[in-house]
UniProtKB/TrEMBL annotation, chain B:
Catalytic activity: L-aspartyl-tRNA(Asn) + L-glutamine + ATP + H2O = L-asparaginyl-tRNA(Asn) + L-glutamate + ADP + phosphate + 2 H(+); L-glutamyl-tRNA(Gln) + L-glutamine + ATP + H2O = L-glutaminyl-tRNA(Gln) + L-glutamate + ADP + phosphate + H(+)
SUPFAM superfamilies xrefs: Glu-tRNAGln amidotransferase C subunit
Function, as annotated: Allows the formation of correctly charged Asn-tRNA(Asn) or Gln-tRNA(Gln) through the transamidation of misacylated Asp-tRNA(Asn) or Glu-tRNA(Gln) in organisms which lack either or both of asparaginyl-tRNA or glutaminyl-tRNA synthetases. The reaction takes place in the presence of glutamine and ATP through an activated phospho-Asp-tRNA(Asn) or phospho-Glu-tRNA(Gln).
Enzyme Commission designation: 6.3.5.-
Name of the protein described by the UniProt record: Aspartyl/glutamyl-tRNA(Asn/Gln) amidotransferase subunit C
Recorded GO MF terms: asparaginyl-tRNA synthase (glutamine-hydrolyzing) activity; ATP binding; glutaminyl-tRNA synthase (glutamine-hydrolyzing) activity; transferase activity
Keywords: ATP-binding, Ligase, Nucleotide-binding, Protein biosynthesis, Transferase
The organism's place on the tree of life at top rank: Bacteria
Keyword match Transferase: yes
Length: 495, 95
């Protein structure tokens, strides 16, 4: 077999079990692809020794029989996950040199299942961004281009390195995290699948915290079946995360029947935005037609508070971030600023945080500090939390009315050029998450499925939103959509 | 509500982030753009609505109030920028 790095998880698993390939061969193929792809700046810490060691161990397990699905499959890990003895910087200067003494629960579960870590993946600093342009490692670059134009495009963010690496076949799949759309938006930008599970499905322990009431980990994969396989390994109750839920994790892959007859799919009218490109509107309508042709019933629905999701998010997420990021003080880990003669502890904090945090992170920490400060707490923070209650109720109402899943566009545009948004005000960049952020606020599962190309030849995705804890049903609907859309485009190799 | 330079300086101080004086006007302007966006929330009728505490109604788990780990001083200090004699070292705090 050649080009083993181009396989998906399910294909590679089946080939491993059939004895057609070894994990070492798969891993070596990915390591070579990674070394050839420095121009994408997706892998920012490579771990070939760990990878080969785990691949050998996986081959032994497979030979012995009874290896779990992920055993021997080479994947990338977003830099937000703490990985023992391996730099874990959340793409921030302030965590320069930090090598955790422990492993995040999700990456541990993947390792226990035999998955092979190839290295750490680029991302926006502390997962704050939609274009992977706030990283201390520099921009991650999308493998996609606009026709013959060699302008570099964004793979989206914050899981931009994960998106770029999976789309460019540097790994079979990757972990991502999603606070406002950071799995689904990049997945849509590069033509891959990304699912954010229900809040509480994946343990947050050992994942560098951004906004704790919104953060969830999830897989970014080449197709829906792979997402089902990898999600199952990532999920599960963890006593070390008090918000992780004690629910059995179903066999998601077994739920992929493709049968969605009689399912009610909601089309929310509030997601039809002014100025939305006609081709996204068209793709959305085509997606609804595909689900209808597969036997689903399409129902117009209303989620009246949609418009207020982004402003509520930009109160709640910075508020939680300002609290979470208070721990970066130059004392316990990471980088401390050079101090001048006579500087005391306050100067140490202030200089360390000014040097260590990038511009966007500083801005969000300060906005969060402001909305939580005395005199503004009620006007901003409490009001945003009340609006969040209303946004969640919008979804509860439509689910109570019998809707099984909701279909929306994943993003308001295709990928854009790196640097193209530099002059725009921060709110313009925030609009990238307009279709995804509601899902985090309501704690629901959401999946982005590649569904077509725009006129420039760039991928566009559709999002499906499911009922809480019903990832299996959601994945099955996504599987039906994927089968109907038949998206097979891949970026031409230029790197 | 609008933020002026002195408010911006106060917020930076509260957040323990050093911002040079010449950077304050731009910072204040960015804050105002974002706060202007957030102001939309004032259009929503939130009378009688409970502020969300947790997205899933759950009672936080409790456990016995006992020591569950410890004895790993070396690991705790391993990543400190300045660790001495088993402690984190910081500049003088008390005069």
């Amino acid at each position: 077999m050649s080009d083993l790095n181009k396989l998906g998880l399910a294909e590679a698993r089946d080939a491993l079990r059939a004895g057609d390939v070894t994990s070492v061969e798969l891993t070596e193929s990915c390591l070579k692809a990674i070394d050839d792809a420095d121009a994408l700046n997706a892998f920012v810490h490579k771990t070939p020794e760990i990878a080969l060691e785990r691949a050998k161990a996986a081959d032994e397990r497979i030979k012995a029989g009874d290896a779990p699905s992920m055993c021997g499959l080479p994947i990338g890990i977003k830099d937000l996950f703490c990985t023992k003895g391996v730099p874990s910087q959340a793409a921030s200067k302030i965590l320069e040199g930090f090598k955790p003494e422990y492993e995040s629960t999700v990456s541990q579960q993947l390792a226990d299942s035999g998955a092979v870590m190839l290295g750490k993946l680029n991302m926006d600093e502390f997962a704050m961004g939609s274009s992977n342009e706030t990283s201390v490692y520099g921009n991650a670059v999308s493998p996609w281009r606009r026709g013959n134009d060699d302008a570099q495009l964004t793979p989206g963010g914050s899981s931009g390195g994960s998106a770029s690496a999976v789309a460019a076949d540097l790994c079979l799949a990757a972990t991502g995290t999603d606070t406002g759309g950071s799995i689904r938006q990049p997945a849509a930008f590069v033509g891959i699948t990304g699912i954010k599970p229900t809040y509480g499905r994946c343990s947050r322990w050992g994942i560098v915290a951004f906004a704790s009431s919104l953060d969830q980990a999830g897989p970014m994969t080449k197709n829906v079946r792979d997402a089902a396989i990898m999600l199952e390994t990532m999920c599960g109750h963890d006593p070390k995360d008090s918000t992780s839920t004690e629910l059995a994790v179903p066999n998601f892959e077994a739920m992929l029947t493709g049968d969605i007859k009689g399912k009610k799919i909601g089309i929310p009218k509030e997601y039809r935005m002014d100025g939305m490109p006609a081709e996204i509107e068209r793709l959305w309508a085509e997606g609804a037609e595909m689900l209808k042709a597969a036997g689903a019933e399409i129902v117009d629905i209303s989620l009246p508070h949609t418009k207020y999701a982004l402003p509520a998010y930009y109160v709640i997420a910075p508020a939680e971030a300002s609290s979470n990021l208070a721990r970066y003080d130059g004392v316990r880990y990471g980088r401390r600023a050079q101090l001048a003669q006579g500087d005391g502890i306050t100067e140490m904090y202030e200089k360390t945080r000014a040097e260590g945090f990038g511009h966007e992170v500083q801005r969000r920490v300060m906005i969060g500090t402001y909305v939580l400060s005395a005199g503004f707490y009620d006007a901003y923070y409490n009001r945003a939390r009340k609006v969040r209650t209303l946004i969640k109720k919008d979804f509860e109402d439509v689910f109570a009315a019998g809707i099984d899943a909701i279909l929306t566009p994943a993003t308001p545009s295709a990928s854009f050029g790196l640097g193209e948004m530099t002059e725009a005000d921060p709110v313009q960049m925030y609009l990238n998450d307009v279709f995804t952020v509601t899902v985090n606020l309501a704690g629901l599962p959401g999946i982005s499925v590649p569904a077509g190309l725009d006129q420039q030849g760039l991928p566009l995705g559709l999002q499906l939103i499911g009922r809480p804890w019903e990832e299996g049903d959601l994945l099955n609907t996504a599987y039906a959509l994927e089968s109907a859309a038949g998206f097979v485009a891949k970026p031409g190799k230029w790197w | 509500m609008s933020i002026d330079q002195s408010n911006a300086a106060k917020v930076a101080k509260l957040a323990r982030i050093k911002v040079e004086d010449d950077a304050l006007p731009a910072l204040a302007s960015e804050f105002n753009t974002i706060l202007g966006f957030i102001e939309q929330l004032n259009e929503v009728d939130v009378e009688g609505v409970e502020p969300m505490v947790s997205v899933e109604p759950m009672r936080l788990k409790r456990r016995e109030d006992v020591v569950t780990d410890g004895n790993q001083q070396d690991k705790v200090l391993a990543n400190a920028p300045d660790a001495r004699e088993g402690f984190f070292a910081v500049p003088k705090v008390v005069e």
